Amino acid sequence: MADPTPLAPMTTEAFKDCDIRGTYPEQVNEDIFARVGREFGRLVAAETVDGQSGPSIVISGDGRNSTHTLMEATIRGLSAAPIDIVDLGYPLPTPAVYWAKDHLGAQASAIVTASHNPANWDGLKVMNGEMPPRPDDIGLLADRASASAEGRAGAEVQMIDGVRLVWPNGWLLVRRSTIEPKVTIRLDGESEAACG
Questions:
Q1: Which H helix or E strand runs over 71?
Q2: Residue 168's Cα: distance from chain center in Å?
Q3: Which of 184, 185, 148 is nearest to 4 (CA)?
C-alpha cells in the first residue's frame, strides 16, 4: 500500500486566542482557510446546538482584496461536511453577519475579516452557537487543520441576495454591491422619523 501524499506544511502563527488573523498570503491563504473550513464544518456537524433545526452556517466577509478567494476556499472546505451553508455575499459588516445568523436560525457563522488590521492582513472569525470561541477551540482547529488535507466538496451552498432587517415601522436591506465593494443601505418608513 502506497503512503498517502504528505500534506504541505501549514503555518499556525495566524491562529490567535479567538480568531485567525495574519498577513496575506504569508500567514493566511486559501489552503489554510480550506483546511480550517473543513474542520470547522466537521465540528459544527458534530455539535448541534440546542434550539437549532440542524447543522447550518452563514458566511460572509469584508471588502479586502483577498476576501473573495478566502471566502471561496472556506466554503470549499465547509462543503465537505454535512451542513447547510448560506453564503450572504460580501462585503457585509460583522454585526450584520451575526444578526443574519440569529435571524436565519443558523447554528454557526464564519466571517472573513481582519477587522482593524492593515489592508495586507486578512482573517477568519468563527462562532458555533451563541458564544465566541475560546483559545482551546481555536487551538483545536489549528491542530486538526494542520493534520488534514482539503476534503471533497459535497454540500450545496445557498446564496442569498442580502439580509432584510424588518421592524414595525420600516425595514433595512443590507446587500453587496454588484458594482464595487461597498454596502448599500436603503431605508423606507412611514415618516422621516421612522428612518432617523
A1: helix 67-78
A2: 30
A3: 148
Query: Cell 477551540 sits at which residue?
Result: 137
Neighbouring CB atoms inside 10 A of 36's CB total 29
With a CB cutoff of 8 Å and minimum separation 6, the contacts of 156 are 79, 84, 85
Q: Which of 110, 50, 107 is nearest to 77 (CA)?
A: 110
In the predicted model, is pLDDT for residue 192 greater than 80? no
Continuous segment of H or E residues that includes residue 179: none
Options 66, 79, 115, 148, the catalytic residue: 115
Q: Has 115 been annotated as catalytic? A: yes
- Taking residue 5's Cβ as centre, other Cβ atoms within 10 Å add up to 7
Please tell me the pTM assigned to this model. 0.76
Per DSSP (E only), the strands in the chain are: 20-23, 56-61, 84-87, 108-112, 121-128, 157-159, 163-167, 170-176, 183-189
Give the pLDDT confidence of 48-92 residue by residue, as tens digits.
Answer: 766 656 789 999 999 999 999 999 999 999 999 999 999 999 899
Partners of residue 110 on adjacent β-strands: 59, 126
**Domains plus CATH for the chain?**
20-161 (3.40.120.10)
